[in-house]
Amino acid sequence: MTLALAHSPALAPAPVPAARVTPYLALDPTVAVRRFRMLARTLPGTAVHYAVKANPHPALLAALAGAGCRFDVASPAEVRACLAAGAVADDLVYSNPVKRRDDITESAALGVRLFVVDSPEETRKVAEAAPGSEVLCRIVTSGEGSDWPLSRKYGCSAPQAVEILTLADALGLGAAGISFHVGSQQRDPGAWASPVAAAARVFAALAGRGIRPWLLDLGGGFPAHHEGGAPPLAAYGAAVETALRRSFDDAGLPRPRTLVEPGRSVVGDAGEVVTTVVAVLHRGDTRWVYLDAGVFTGMVETLDEAIRYRLATSADGGPTGPCVLAGPTCDSADVLYEKRPVQLPLALAEGDRVVLRSAGAYSTCYSTVGFNGFDPMPTVLVSR
Amino acid sequence: MTLALAHSPALAPAPVPAARVTPYLALDPTVAVRRFRMLARTLPGTAVHYAVKANPHPALLAALAGAGCRFDVASPAEVRACLAAGAVADDLVYSNPVKRRDDITESAALGVRLFVVDSPEETRKVAEAAPGSEVLCRIVTSGEGSDWPLSRKYGCSAPQAVEILTLADALGLGAAGISFHVGSQQRDPGAWASPVAAAARVFAALAGRGIRPWLLDLGGGFPAHHEGGAPPLAAYGAAVETALRRSFDDAGLPRPRTLVEPGRSVVGDAGEVVTTVVAVLHRGDTRWVYLDAGVFTGMVETLDEAIRYRLATSADGGPTGPCVLAGPTCDSADVLYEKRPVQLPLALAEGDRVVLRSAGAYSTCYSTVGFNGFDPMPTVLVSR
Fold it and tell me: What is the pTM of this model?
């Protein structure tokens, strides 16, 4: 049953009271738990740390913690949320490579022991603010093959990582190992091969200096069910295992402990954004559909039309046609899909429901505080 | 003194307690009141309706209402905020051209009488939800010359506006007139000429049908002091007056009442975002400066590097060099300026202050609810 869920692009929408005021995120934490377990089975021996930034809802964190999931955090507030949900501080990885000094101090005081860095400056900062901690050094990847690539802002080269981890060791930190991120909603399971090989080169070089890193953070990037499809999770497990075998086992290097930081692939399919059509207008030859949710109520990942949600409507069944999909605010940037219009029923009219599927990740957390006077997107807990 | 303020690009930063926790918006409502009065003087006979969406802080709205400013609103929440600040409902224009039906009903119940439409569908909706109201029909403009053009999402052609206002009249609505928007941070005062001429054609055509529109909404677009400069406000007043004279007076058409909907030009210069440097890193040949505020704490207008804030730092005075400016979240999209790097002091280091000037508009209102566990940007009221 879990496997059927993993492979089916047609998740049944949650039963939704027709009278409920939209928009909202219908979130089912049990789906996230199933996805966590599937990832854990797919990556045997690899610890799964859910990326809290994707959706920090307390009920979600509690369900995941209860199922044995660990967490990936980016701030003291996320540390506190995980501890409140029942996680232990030793099971957290603080993956933000550039941190406020007081945030490091506070997180260390809360018990966090593992921090990601990607520069000598940040390594010194961690050594001063959280002496004796363990550090992972983040290396850069190409981001190729992902819908939301991350390559510009973080990460160093493999040779730089050798120097940074050597510095960490000299400063009394634990040179734990390497982290990387192949980009969010990564459609190519082969994307892990190159950074795993780079990590192995760093591990080998450090061993030559008498430093023994022990941990490899394989990042996130595992997909949710967005438009365009992606290989099943099992394909990612197989590709990661192949990469580890080739770069470590076959090369005679001791294989490090491994962890992953999935966000979207855990909670994406666990949520649906339920909206109502405000208007259907014809502007020239173009049909414009205006929803009561948009970029500023959380659908930020539609910027540049990067993430394409699968859509379902209360008017489904008849013929469809292209339309531009827009949000409710006065802002011209509040347009979800225009360059590549979406196909929606020709019968779609004011008052119909439009559901954005697999929208549990990077949606409510991106909502504004209330731009144009529209409330932030609320979450409604559901059970399927 | 007020004029000196208008023309000087070098507003003195507000005195800021060094110990205060950043980031925050330092907001001085008295500056917004001065800007409102300057706009009112520059556009004699034109009613000034502050666009609440730019910054809805209650103290700001109260100061503006107390000075006689009217308001432009986009939702019932903004209507209620204006009424709470002391505005009267008759002085509000509801300028969101595509509205939820229940939002129209609620706003009409609160006393709003003037709604913007841009389609036959929306005109019928207003006629049903707020019978007997007055409507302005929004026509499309090119957006040329503005930093944040608005042309895609709203507006109809002038011939369509004639039909829509004729329909409004037939449905028992008041066909009040025309609205348009030349795009936010519009650097060309001449941008008003073409839409004013188009509006005059609509007024003339309607007069031929026995319908007498009486109101012209000249929109917003008046600038704040961002990088790159813009003509003084007086140049906009002169250009608007010339456009009205040519298209109405010289054409023998009765000149309508006029209103403007400034947001940025009222509150932009009244606020500064105060941030702290989290880290200065060298990635290859590039210097990266990480601040404790970014895209997800409200600096959304830096997307595509559209709005370029003037910057001041606590390390100013020595030599400067280019750098990329990034925000504090793990998100790769949280980069303010990269394609066109900014010039900042070479001495800039962790813990220094970086102030984003003229950031009172479209900043706090765009802040997320707390992405990555970082709080929404707070506002601190100051007085210069």
Answer: 0.93
